[in-house]
Design a protein that fits this description.
By secondary structure, the chain is α/β, with parallel strands linked by helices. It contains 8 helices and 10 strands. The chain starts with a strand and ends in a 16-residue tail after the last helix.
Length: about 200
């Protein structure tokens, strides 16, 4: 998997990919469904399969006073995604400029740079300033501009939708079995161990 930091770093062979777009914190089984759908379409059409994600996470910028606790660091996301089969991981800086773009302009920016053939998103996908555009708007744009849009339905676990919020809730309530089912793997976190008082 090739890491691309910013749209200006794209190579010519990266263009024309099938892309999935989102934050992908935690890489839970709902994200897995998006990745599998992206890979399936890309393989059918002999195109690269790409993920477009953001750093920092949008909610860290939009709600600096109460950002969500991260389930995965960027390094951990990279480690998990290396085994996904994706060809490209495109990381966009969630800057004030990017944040201010209306949905149509954000889509035009991606389309001009990536020249993507297809987009795979979740049913609750939103983009653009204040989330002014959704999956339905993306489908409408695809019909006009000539790219396909695959909207993946929610993945349910024990009757609840797999989401990063659901994983955070399960971990906060010490429901590690629920978190494992939502993630599709045991939850883990990596970090440096600091010397303490050795009690």
């Amino acid at each position: 998997m090739h890491l691309v930091r910013g749209l200006r770093a794209l190579r010519e062979r990266d263009r024309g990919a099938v892309v999935t777009i989102g934050t992908f914190d935690g890489l839970h089984i709902g994200h897995g469904a998006l990745i599998r759908a992206t890979l399936a379409q890309a393989r059918r059409e002999a195109r690269p399969a790409a993920m477009v994600t953001f750093e920092p996470m949008p909610r860290e910028v939009l709600r600096p006073d109460a950002p969500p606790e991260r389930l995965t660091s960027f390094r951990e996301r990279w480690r998990l995604l290396e085994r996904s089969g994706l060809d490209l991981l495109i990381v966009l800086q969630f800057s004030p400029t990017l944040r201010a773009l209306p949905g149509a302009q954000f889509l035009a920016l991606l389309r001009d740079a990536l020249q993507f053939n297809g987009v795979v998103v979740g049913h609750d996908f939103r983009y653009g300033r204040n989330g002014d555009s959704d999956a339905s708007a993306l489908e409408s744009a695809g019909r006009v501009q000539g790219f396909t849009v695959d909207v993946v339905p929610p993945v349910l676990v024990d009757g609840q939708r797999a989401s990063s919020t659901a994983v955070r809730r399960a971990l906060g309530e010490s429901q590690f079995g629920v978190a494992q089912r939502l993630l599709g793997r045991p939850y883990g976190i990596r970090g440096r161990v600091a010397r303490g008082e050795q009690l």
